[in-house]
Amino acid sequence: MKKIKDPTETLKDLIVDACQDIKAKDLVVLNMNNIKEASASFFVICHGDSSTQVNAIASNVLKKVKEVLGQSGNKEGMKNGEWVLVDYGDVVVHVFFKEKRYYYQLEELWGDATLTEYGEEGKEIKKLKSKTKTNARAGQQRVAK
């Protein structure tokens, strides 16, 4: 018997694909389902190397979700291209300019979420509790600067 996929999971997977189409960097998904205070089931977080890439990633998410699922997302931040938020209710997408991402460190705010990292091929590569991974990532980023 074939298992029917949850519509929220389908939306999240489509968004991950759309981000990867435009070469989003450090793509992660925070699974917020076990956090009572969370306003969404998933946060998809990534960054681009320029405001042009940030806007292209967000635009591709909007386009692909509209084409495939017929859903429109609410968007904020497209004018400045430093932090674009696309809200689909159960899935919220945060596309940052690199420096803004590491300044705000959203992954740190939701330390109880399960964090899934995606590689450049769009394949899931790691699943961890958020706090452990992002503390290491934040330290690596500070050292790299």
Please explain how this structure is put together.
The chain is of the alpha+beta class and 145 residues long. The protein has one domain: Beta Polymerase, domain 2. The chain is 41% helix and 28% strand. The protein has helices at 7-21, 51-69, 98-104, 106-109, 130-144; strands at 25-31, 42-48, 74-76, 83-87, 91-97, 114-118, 124-129. Strands 3-4-5-2-1-6-7 form a seven-stranded mixed beta sheet. Helix 1 runs antiparallel to helix 2 (51-69). The longest helix has 19 residues, at 51-69. 32% of the residues are buried.
Characteristics:
145 residues, alpha+beta, 5 helices, disordered C terminus, globular, Beta Polymerase, domain 2, 7-stranded mixed sheet
Physical arrangement of strands within the biggest beta sheet: 3-4-5-2-1-6-7
Q: What's the Cα radius of gyration?
A: 14 Å
- Largest sheet composition: 7 strands, mixed
Number of helices: 5
Q: Spans with pLDDT under 50 lasting ≥5 residues?
A: 131-145
What would the CATH topology be? Beta Polymerase, domain 2
Structural class by SSE content:
alpha+beta
- Dominant shape: globular
Share of helix, binned:
40-55%
SSE arrangement, N to C: HEEHEEEHHEEH
End-to-end span in angstroms? 51 Å
Strand tally, please? Answer: 7
Could you say what the CATH architecture is? 2-Layer Sandwich
Average per-residue pLDDT, rounded, comes to 85
Which CATH class is shown? Alpha Beta
Fourth-level CATH superfamily: Beta Polymerase, domain 2
Question: What percentage of the residues does DSSP assign to strands (E)?
Answer: 25-35%
How many domain units? Answer: 1
